[in-house]
Every structure is written in C-alpha cells, then in structure tokens.
Amino acid sequence: MALLTAEQIGAASDRKFEDVEVPEWGGTVRIQSMSGTDRNSHQAETLVIGPNGRPKEVNLRDQYARILARCIVDEQGRRLFVTDKQIAALGAKDAGVLERLAKVAKQVSGLTEGAAEDAAGKSATTAGGSSSTD
C-alpha cells in the first residue's frame, strides 16, 4: 500500500455526521464530528489548569451548548452557532434536548467520559501494558 501525501490526507473527507430528529424543535439537526482542533479547544475550555500546570477544575458552564456549537452544522458542514450570543441562546434551550444531542455529538466525535482526563495526562495506565511499538 502506498503512503499518503499531505495533499491526499487534506483532501480526504473523514468527518462523520448523524442527522437527529428533534421533535421539540420541529425538525432535524445534523451533528458532525469535531475536527481535532475543535476537540482540543473544547477540552481546553472544559479543563481548567491551575498555576502548577495540573488540572484544577472542570468547567461545566454551558457544556452542552459549547459542544453542540462545534457540531451542529448545515448541509454544507457550516456551523449554525458561532457567536457567543448564539451559543448562549442555544444553551437556553431545554436541558434534556441539549443533553440528548450532546451525547450524539460526543459519540460521533470519539469523546469518552475520560477524554478530559486523558488530555490532562491523568488517565490511569497499567504497568506492563502493551505498546504499538513492542
């Protein structure tokens, strides 16, 4: 198998999406996976680092609205919620609906419950675990 070039990687369409019915809103929304940059930004906003460089707290303020703003897109993949005012308005919607959609956003983006801890280097590792370079 030939190795890919930077151009081939850049041209690859690798973002996943799922269309989700939202009867409370009277229609369907498209939830697209986050880019690596979006995911890192989301994690950086969520995990508050203290002066010692270690995690100090988790910022849960508008957590669902922040993740959904990165994931709810139109048919061309453009975000629907971009400005702080739009994100705040999204956060004012029903919490149950936001939570349901955020679960889909996390799933298509590969975010797990331990993702913030992993990003901070706090995930548990087992001694003698296997490595892809073994």
- What's the CATH H-level homologous superfamily? Phage tail assembly chaperone gp13-like
> Radius of gyration, rounded?
17 Å
Which ranges are low-confidence, i.e. pLDDT below 50, for 5 or more consecutive residues? Answer: 122-134
CATH uppermost class: Alpha Beta
In terms of structural class, how would the helical and strand content be classed?
A: alpha+beta
**Share of helix, binned:** 40-55%
Strand content: 15-25%
The CA-CA distance between the termini, in Å, is: 22 Å
Instruction: Return the string of H and E elements.
Output: HEEHEEHEHHH
Using the coordinates shown, work out and report the CATH topology.
Answer: rbstp2171
Strand count: 5
Q: Categorize the overall geometry.
A: flat
Integer count of domains? 1
* Largest sheet data: 3 strands, antiparallel
Spatial strand sequence of the major β-sheet? 1-2-5
Number of helices: 6
Describe it for me?
- With 134 residues, the protein is an alpha+beta fold.
- The chain has one domain (15-113): Phage tail assembly chaperone gp13-like (rbstp2171, 2-Layer Sandwich).
- It has 6 helices and 5 strands; from the N terminus they run H-E-E-H-E-E-H-E-H-H-H.
- The chain has helices at 6-11, 36-46, 63-71, 84-91, 95-109, 115-119; strands at 17-22, 27-32, 47-49, 55-58, 72-73.
- Strand 3 and strand 4 (55-58) form a beta hairpin.
- Helix 3 packs across helix 5 (95-109).
- The protein is flat and about 50 Å long.
- Mean pLDDT is 86; it is low at 122-134.
